[in-house]
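Predict structure. Chain length: 749.
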Amino acid sequence: MKAAGQSVRARLRIGVAASDPGLLRLAAGLRTVGAIALTLAVLGLLDAGIRHLVAGAMAAMVATFAIREKQRPQQALTLALGLPVALASLSLGAVMSSRVVAGDLVFVALIFCAVYGRRFGDRGTALGLIGFQVYFLSLFVGAAVSGLPELYGVLGIAFASSALVRFVLVPETPAGLLERLREAFRARLAQLVSAQLDLLDAGPDELEQVLEDVRDGTARLHETALMIQGRLEEGTADEPTARLVQRRIADAEIAAERLGLLLLTARSAERADTLTMHLPGAPVPAGRRLPARDEATATLRRDLQALRLLVLRPVSQGTGTGLSHVRNRLLGYRDEENVPAAPAAVQDAFRGIGEAARAVLGLRIALGGAQDESDDTPATTRSREEMDAEDAAIDAGEDEDRGQEEPTGLRRPTTRAAVQVAVGSSLAIVGGEFLSSQRWYWAVLACWIVFINTASTGEILVKGYRRLVGTVFGVVAGIVLAGLVGQHTWTAFALMLVCVFAMFYTAPLSYTLMSFFVTAALGLLYTLMHTYSLSVLLLRVQETALGAACGVVAAAFVLPVRTDRRTNELLVTVLERLAEVTESAVDQLSGGPPVELLDQARDLDQALADLRAATQPLTHPITPLRARRDTARYVVALLETCAYHARSLAATAELLPTHPSIAADPRLRRAGRRIAHNIGAIAAYVADDQAAVEIETGRSIASLLEPDIPGTPRYSRVTDRVLRHLQRLDETVAGLARPLDVPVAAPKR
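Prediction complete.
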């Protein structure tokens, strides 16, 4: 019974870690709710009035969610600077409350400064957010000059409560957060292996859904790897340790993605296209065949389950005969004599399991787990020696300065956004006054919010639509909640805290859900202030629609950044990063000097993530341009395929200095020239469709490596793997030409 209970708790822990990497959403919700609850408790003991309670709750929420720095000293400094900014903004709102025109002009100027402050990083963004939200707070509670001393005290209590919760009650250290992210990576890796096991067993009718689960699992693992990358510098003791963890995370990610592709191939007699793992609806090899049920595939299923067990076992439980036996058996597949007799595709899957087991072993060592080497087999010993050599070769490196010129003037994104939001807010103020002379500021808030974390007209349009939908359903919830709580003040506050927690917990997942909980919480606040009515909540919907529309109009006509322009700029960046990784990896595999390939690969991943986010307006389900939506999805899937092969090339090249079995092959440089040319040609054409460029096609990459001297060995097994990645990369890059309308040259004979 006790073991069963521990098993349930372990599964629950793994599930939570996988669904909320680093527990970031949980911590954000608890921290905000804790700050609000503590503020309300202190104000309640001081017998504060209802408006002061509402002001304190709103101020505590702002003081908590505005802080974005990763290091605690920087967080404390920003919070300390935020209090005088909040006091000044509150004073300004109270003074201008009776001066309509002057107050509107000051509000617009404040909005401009708040958005412009983003150019100064996280601190500038936080202080601008505090300034705007506290000014809004002064309008919401009807702050007057005579009541400023009490409100000053309320703000002081709110900021102090936020600091106490952040640094004492719900603390977060960079090292602790990184540890939780590692746990999330391990949990998501286990989930991906489970999905891959289902892939091996799936029947024809189930295959597409299981493939979608594998794609989703791969994307979630990749997302966690990027999150870890962003926290390594702050969460590790020194740079060599950070680079070691970075390498092990990259190894595990690449091995897991490659294993999925090999398993898809193993269930049929055809080689799977890498694009299948990134694009829903892509051709599936032998999609109508039933998966094999022979002895080899039965062993393959058993070993996938063993790999999942190896991933799930906590790092602190790294010893034990049973675990050692599993580890040794899986690592043995890295030696050809241990690979079972089976079709070539199934044998490749066994080799993929061996490489994945090696990556898991490296991950466990990097995370500091206890290592019992007494039961090691020769294959396991060899894997350890390889990783020891890799660890010894890690040197501190400096990031490459790409020398990109920063835009100036109105071309700078923060300046352009500040002008746009100022114009949009001015329109919202005018329109909002026509709807309500008392609550016009809701339109301004909606206009402000749709500009946060957006960079194009399409993104603003989608965000405005989502906010409106969430607000409409939130109004319905607000009506129900207001009827339930009646005049019970503390019940209303308790429900409001639930809504606030849900708002922060769901924010990264769904902007619509976040807007729903915001509106429901506001309905409770109106109830507390005795200003609740159905007409007020309906006015909230009208003001939200107006504010979102004003934001879209400003984005479309004032210094507009069209979605096409934005995506093209990001597409060029992705292609440039892809070219850097590919050229550097091929050069190193050809005998060139070592470079920081993993850093370049992560730069490519981040650029691709930015592009994926920017294409959301094009791929949104409500878009009427179906052909354009399909093209955007296809291009992103092709780029994800390119990134997978580039990461694999980089990982192989990283092993070159330390592995005696991997030797440089100068002929690879010749094979990479066409790929580099084609990537550059596509980037030039996307940047300027009048550019005189063409895509080169012709002989396969492998044929380019035919030896010049008859009788010379063609290439080694490792070179063969590199060639397969180069061949797929060459085909995928050439495939980008069709959807992007890049001219293709006639094949050379």
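Summary: The chain has 27 helices and no strands.
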